[in-house]
Amino acid sequence: MESESFSTLLRTASREQHEEVRGSSFIGALLGRKLGVEAFARYTEQLWFVYGALEAGARHLAADPVAGPFLRPELFRRAALERDLEHLRGPGWRRTAGALPATLEYAERISVCARTWPAGYVAHHYTRYMGDLSGGQIIRDTAERTWGFPKKGDGVRFYVFEEIPNPAAFKRAYCELLDALPGDRLERQRTVAECKRAYALNNGMFEALGEEFPLTA
Ligand code: HEM
């Protein structure tokens, strides 16, 4: 019955949501090199709020038997985002940084999971970091070419996992952790549902960014 591994289940069950988020107009405009660097800076700023919640949650869950094994310091992105924002916005970036309502909603959901439901937190952890290690590299490449950032340098450090020399091997090990997650069938279903919710929250953020940076013909 349970022939499919949990990592495979998670990937296949969220495939549609992945395509949806990938097809959002903001991502389309970004990959189509139709946006100004200000839109990229605003997106990076939103990620700073999201990873603030994700990585504050990580500190809280370090000793947790379910979420603890996923919390690898080589994944942490907050410091890289701060360097990028300093480059994109200048040293005063913190004074003007503001989260969109959709970003606040996303960050708040992560915080609630971190406080109350470790497997739900893992669903958010997976959706962000595995995405960053995969499609994130396409965004980095596009950003470097569109706005002339130094390759893997300031502006796109968020996308560079310096302490993960072999992302494919890292992802395989991560999937093994997912497959070893404790929990019965119902808990797995709830975790899959939370992963879909994480995609929906990302989509909401992209929609809001798309409204802020509409493409004029
Ligand atoms: C620029 C837009 C995006 C592109 C081009 C893209 C592309 C990709 C690609 C090529 C993979 C690898 C698939 C594989 O190894 O089989 C992947 C995996 C993944 N992406 Fe994206 N992606 C994008 C945006 C996103 C976003 C916004 C999220 C969620 C926030 C996301 C979450 C994921 C996850 C969780 C995986 C890992 C799937 C797994 O192997 O379990 N992606 N993406």
TrEMBL record:
Keyword Metal-binding applies: yes
Superkingdom, natural source: Bacteria
InterPro entries in the cross-refs: Haem_Oase, Haem_Oase-like, Haem_Oase-like_multi-hlx
Keyword GTP-binding: no
One Pfam family hit: Heme_oxygenase
Keyword line: Heme, Iron, Metal-binding
PANTHER family listed in its UniProt record: HEME OXYGENASE (PTHR10720)
Name of the protein in question: Biliverdin-producing heme oxygenase
